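hey
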């Protein structure tokens, strides 16, 4: 599956938000990239604001257009709040969960671990980053991969802060999806209602 491979700092500056992780570029240059980025003061249309929010969500979670549209369709058919459903579906992706558990330092790194067959779900090898986890699913590091430097370094620097919808077993080096996160628990700076309004047009 194709994915965005371009410059991360440029995208982070475009949204003035370090969506790929801490970025010195955003801190030093808090304005859009390009020759006229510093002087851009045009008022954006409602559509442009909504579209930018969708693009931001796609870049944050590493999802392309068709995948994102399919997820939105699935979220809209579920009961409850569509925007919150969408974020819950994005959070339930395997690559995102590997990142949240601290097995990888970024979502890109998590995606690579999954595609390179270092991750198992309920004891079975899964190499599809977009694999959707269900409540009770256990995500583990493949036994042969537990000594990988990239994984051990990431786990060593793993934050003590935990996400309420995930359980981590340090001894087994595995995590479990115990519930769906509420909107308040998801730390991403995304205005999901703007995305819902965009798709409702």
């Amino acid at each position: 599956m194709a994915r965005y491979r371009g410059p991360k700092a440029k995208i982070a500056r475009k949204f003035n938000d370090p969506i790929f992780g801490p970025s010195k570029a955003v801190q030093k240059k808090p304005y859009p990239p390009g020759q006229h980025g510093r002087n851009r003061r045009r008022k954006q249309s409602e559509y442009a604001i909504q579209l930018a929010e969708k693009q931001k969500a796609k870049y944050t979670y590493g999802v392309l257009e068709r995948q994102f549209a399919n997820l939105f369709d699935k979220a809209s058919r579920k009961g409850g709040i569509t925007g919150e459903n969408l974020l819950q579906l994005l959070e339930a992706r395997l690559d995102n969960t590997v990142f949240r558990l601290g097995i990888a330092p970024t979502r890109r790194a998590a995606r690579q671990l999954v595609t390179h067959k270092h991750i198992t779900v309920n004891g079975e090898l899964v190499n599809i980053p977009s694999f959707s986890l269900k409540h009770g699913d256990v995500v583990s590091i493949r036994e042969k991969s537990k000594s990988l430097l990239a994984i051990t370094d990431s786990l060593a620097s793993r934050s003590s802060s935990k996400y309420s919808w995930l359980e981590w077993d340090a001894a087994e080096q595995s995590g479990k999806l115990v519930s769906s996160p509420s909107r308040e628990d998801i730390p991403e700076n995304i205005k999901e209602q703007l995305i819902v309004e965009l798709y409702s047009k």
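The chain has a mean pLDDT of 87. The radius of gyration is 18 Å.
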